[in-house]
């Protein structure tokens, strides 16, 4: 699910939000919309800066460096396409070549310095673009495009060359698209289509072709940004820009990697604030895909679970195939907001209806049972022996006369129905033709979504090519799977953006008192002992057991009396990662003699294993609860990430965890818990009481605050197990591992 439920906050919810927002940190103002220039507690921007790309997409003047009109030369075809594009957008074209007096009849300048005016856009067709970039900087060009390959996609030498190019661009003040890009930005877009458009961003031009071809089906495209290696302009820049364009109804992306995860999230946040849907294919789900993407564009693909979590948090709809990208983006661009989230399946075959209803339910769509009054109304036109509860089976014949339209209107009139899905598995003229016309006409007179799945493999039938594709109101699909994927994304997008509250608006802007306490505990480049790691947790208000660190058997006995029997004893040292495997944990000790023996045994094992100790922990024993894990790691793209899941041995066996990318709020923390496969354990099973979910959410938000404030200084944190006690009793961190960054 992409959306979150926004409801009334409980007292615990308000407390959790206060922790996430840093309300304990003093006079800093949180909760207001972030403005350009606002920084979070780590000094990172909280608002996407939107680049002015108007003169890139509609320049007044264009220079083509390396222009050619010689037959058989690659640059000739490019120059010709650019000349045609310049004419369409009303721009002046200036060819540049040191030895040609003219190109395609246009006067040719021998160098950039000889251009007759400052140009908005320079297209660089030479093999070594670096000297040209420096010349364009002198000429104060606004934008440049570099097609040349051989940069970061080729390995270390290419990466170094790209860094030099990026540095030159940064010094120049111009903005660069590329290198390793193509002509997609200068394609011929149909100007006879109306309605909201799709804006397209791709890191492989060929992969954008299916979306570009949607124009042949009557779906408008407004822009295409082929970002290439993103030495300067990146996906996030175009995403922010497209989200501000009034004609853009949806943004479709093919992503192989991201230049900067934070910038992408800020751009996605801008789109979410404006309610503009973003649909993305993001490769790298597998090791092979990630490796191939890196060789293609030279960017990081990111750990896929983190990528999934990041996209989810900011409402980016991730799909797997280009066909899904086409269909989902087209639906989201053109459909009006839903009036209800109920889906009704309407067919002329009981088998078809049942099959599609099964698939829709499995996809997470809600198929409400139509009320008795509505079923009675439908049975005026549909035989009594056919089911009309949802799915609705009309038996076939009613679609051939006036009954067909009455059935469709009655379904769309139901207040619980927001989407009507009609699968037509194959053409059966004239009934299918009449059905299609009725659906199209009904769609023109309703504000609800009408979806038709035209299942014929031929696709040349007039009912499909002329009637369905000629309608701007019916969403037409060729497969049931793509239809349901798009409908699910459509409903989820509108749930998500209704009342959308940006996590960046609530991100802490000043350090908390906890941060100042934590600073004193950090040891750069070192792993903290369990005792020190728990002190770090205490600094952020995370509860740990009663415990004492001792260095003698006698002190251990005294500590056990103060802590209270039964106790747990554990070796504590900066380099101990797996105490249980080494036999360095003793549980359930109930007497002084057991404590003395345990102390001696633990220190003997430590000497034998050559483990350095700072002492032995004598801890309160906490037994009743659900073992969970909460941790912090650093992702190469998105920075600190927070993980929560089932803990103890289950974390390694089941790997049942969810990831959040800070900043995030309470709703996201609860969504993370809701997505766990073992969530039932937290709700209480086999007579066990439900766990204190509010306390677990509070810990997740406190750990998030720690990750945001400490940043790179906290390389890793692992609270395992975090024992979540029965409802109302809190949560206790029984063990912790912390590694400090350098």
From TrEMBL:
The UniProt record lists the keyword ATP-binding: yes
Residues annotated as domain ATP-grasp: 534-572
Segments traversing the membrane: none
The UniProt record lists the keyword Lipid metabolism: no
Keywords tagged on the record: ATP-binding, Nucleotide-binding
Gene3D superfamilies given in the database record: ATP-grasp fold, A domain (3.30.1490.20), ATP-grasp fold, B domain (3.30.470.20), NAD(P)-binding Rossmann-like Domain (3.40.50.720), Succinyl-CoA synthetase domains (3.40.50.261)
Species the sequence originates in: Streptomyces lomondensis
PANTHER family: BLL6376 PROTEIN, COA BINDING DOMAIN CONTAINING PROTEIN
Protein name: ATP-grasp domain-containing protein
InterPro entries for the chain: ATP-grasp (IPR011761), ATP_grasp_subdomain_1 (IPR013815), CoA-bd (IPR003781), NAD(P)-bd_dom_sf (IPR036291), Succ_CoA_lig_flav_dom (IPR032875), Succinyl-CoA_synth-like (IPR016102)
PROSITE patterns cross-referenced by the UniProt entry: ATP_GRASP
SMART domains associated with the record: CoA_binding (SM00881)
Protein origin, superkingdom: Bacteria
């Amino acid at each position: 699910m992409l959306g979150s439920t926004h409801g009334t906050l409980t007292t615990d919810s308000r407390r959790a939000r206060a922790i996430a927002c840093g309300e304990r940190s003093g006079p800093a103002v949180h909760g207001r919309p972030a403005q350009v220039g606002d920084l979070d507690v780590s000094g990172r921007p909280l608002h996407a800066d939107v680049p002015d790309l108007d003169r890139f997409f509609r320049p007044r003047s264009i220079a083509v460096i390396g222009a050619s009109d010689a037959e058989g030369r690659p640059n000739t075809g490019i120059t010709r396409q650019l000349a045609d594009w310049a004419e369409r957008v009303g721009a002046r074209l200036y060819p540049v070549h040191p030895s040609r007096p003219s190109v395609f009849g246009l006067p040719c300048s021998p160098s950039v310095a000889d251009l007759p005016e400052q140009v908005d856009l320079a297209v660089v067709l030479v093999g070594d673009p670096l000297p040209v970039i420096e010349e364009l900087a002198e000429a104060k060009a606004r934008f440049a495009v570099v097609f040349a390959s051989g940069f970061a996609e080729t390995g270390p030498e290419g990466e170094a060359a790209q860094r030099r190019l990026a540095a030159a661009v940064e010094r120049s003040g111009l903005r660069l698209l590329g290198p390793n890009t193509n002509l997609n930005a200068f394609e011929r877009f149909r100007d006879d289509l109306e309605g909201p458009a799709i804006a397209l961003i791709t890191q492989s031009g060929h992969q954008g072709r299916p979306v570009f071809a949607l124009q042949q089906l009557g779906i408008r495209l407004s822009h295409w940004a082929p970002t290439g290696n993103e030495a300067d302009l990146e996906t996030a820049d175009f995403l922010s820009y497209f989200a501000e364009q009034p004609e853009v109804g949806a943004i479709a992306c093919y992503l192989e990697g991201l230049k900067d995860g934070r910038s992408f999230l800020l751009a996605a946040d801008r789109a979410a604030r404006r309610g503009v849907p973003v649909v993305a294919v993001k490769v790298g789900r597998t090791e092979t895909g990630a490796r191939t993407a890196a060789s293609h564009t030279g960017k990081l693909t990111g750990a896929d679970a983190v990528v999934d979590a990041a996209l989810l948090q900011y409402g980016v709809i991730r799909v797997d195939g280009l066909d899904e990208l086409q269909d989902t983006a087209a639906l989201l661009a053109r459909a009006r907001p839903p009036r209800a989230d109920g889906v009704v399946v309407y067919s002329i075959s009981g088998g078809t209806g049942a099959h599609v209803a099964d698939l829709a339910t499995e996809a997470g769509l809600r198929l409400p049972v139509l009320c008795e009054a509505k079923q009675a109304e439908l049975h005026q036109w549909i035989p009594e022996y056919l089911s009309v509860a949802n799915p609705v089976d009309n038996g076939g014949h009613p679609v051939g006369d006036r009954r067909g339209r009455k059935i469709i209107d009655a379904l769309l009139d139901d207040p619980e129905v927001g989407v009507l899905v009609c699968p037509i598995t194959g053409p059966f003229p004239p009934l299918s033709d009449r059905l299609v016309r009725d659906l199209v006409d009904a769609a023109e007179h309703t504000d609800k979504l009408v979806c038709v799945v035209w299942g014929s493999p031929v696709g040349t039938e007039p009912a499909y090519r002329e009637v369905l594709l000629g309608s701007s109101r019916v969403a037409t699909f060729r497969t049931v799977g793509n239809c349901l994927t798009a409908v699910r994304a459509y409903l989820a997008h509108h749930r998500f953006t209704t009342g959308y509250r940006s996590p960046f608006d609530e991100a802490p802007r000043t350090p908390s008192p906890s941060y100042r306490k934590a600073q004193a505990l950090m040891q750069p480049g070192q792993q903290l002992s369990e005792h020190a790691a728990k002190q770090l947790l205490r600094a952020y208000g995370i509860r740990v057991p009663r415990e004492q660190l001792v260095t003698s058997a006698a002190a251990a006995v005294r500590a056990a009396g103060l802590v209270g029997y039964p106790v747990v004893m554990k070796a504590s040292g900066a380099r101990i990662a797996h105490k249980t495997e080494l036999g360095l944990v003793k549980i359930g000790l109930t007497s002084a003699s057991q404590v003395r023996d345990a102390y001696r045994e633990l220190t003997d094992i430590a000497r034998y294993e050559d483990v350095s100790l700072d002492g032995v922990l004598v801890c309160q024993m906490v037994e009743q609860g659900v073992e969970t894990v909460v941790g912090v790691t650093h992702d190469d793209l998105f920075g600190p990430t927070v993980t929560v899941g089932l803990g103890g041995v289950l974390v390694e066996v089941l790997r049942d965890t969810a990831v959040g990318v800070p900043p995030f709020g309470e709703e996201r923390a609860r969504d993370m818990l809701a997505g766990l496969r073992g969530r039932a354990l937290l709700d209480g099973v086999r007579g066990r009481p439900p766990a204190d979910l509010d306390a677990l959410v509070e810990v997740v938000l406190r750990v998030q605050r720690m990750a945001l404030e400490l940043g790179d200084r906290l390389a890793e944190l692992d609270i395992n197990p975090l024992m979540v006690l029965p409802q109302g009793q809190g949560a206790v961190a029984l063990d912790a591992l912390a590694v400090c960054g350098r």
